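To make this tangible, we now present a fold written out as tokens:
***
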Amino acid sequence: MFSASVDNLTDRFRGNLIIDRAVELTEREWHRIIIGKHEFKVDGPCQRCHMICIDQQTGEKTAEPLRTISEQFAGKMRFGIYLSYVGPVNGMKDKALKVKSIVKPMINEDDISR
């Protein structure tokens, strides 16, 4: 299995938001998510391309981590999710996401409390 530092993988995947969860890959079950005072809709899984195989510091191209993702997910190159901004929760005026904000995933429509 592929092994790299968290910083190296973060650079390779180029995620706009990195959310640390106790259980891996739970984002596949999310329908919506509240981050701090902002709600987002999950638009679907992120299709991964060969760019994640390029070390952003050295420019070196390898087969990993795409090979491992493919093996782990039965050939499907999907890892991560796309989000669309819905709006502030309960009419809040705060316009910024903040580091270490509380993250509340919503699995189904019944979880939405807007």
Notes: The chain has a mean pLDDT of 80. Residues 29-106 form one domain.
